[in-house]
Amino acid sequence: MIAKLSGRLDATGEDWAIVDVGGVGYLVHCSSRTLAALGEVGEGCTVHTQLQVSENDMRLLGFAESAERDWFRLLTGVQGVGSKVALAILSALATGELREACGRGDAAQVARANGVGPKLAARIVNELKDRAGAMPGGGGSFASGITAPVAGASADAVSALENLGFKPAVAAQAVARAQAELGEGASEGDLIRVALKKAAG
Question: Is the pTM of this model over 0.70?
Answer without folding.
Answer: no
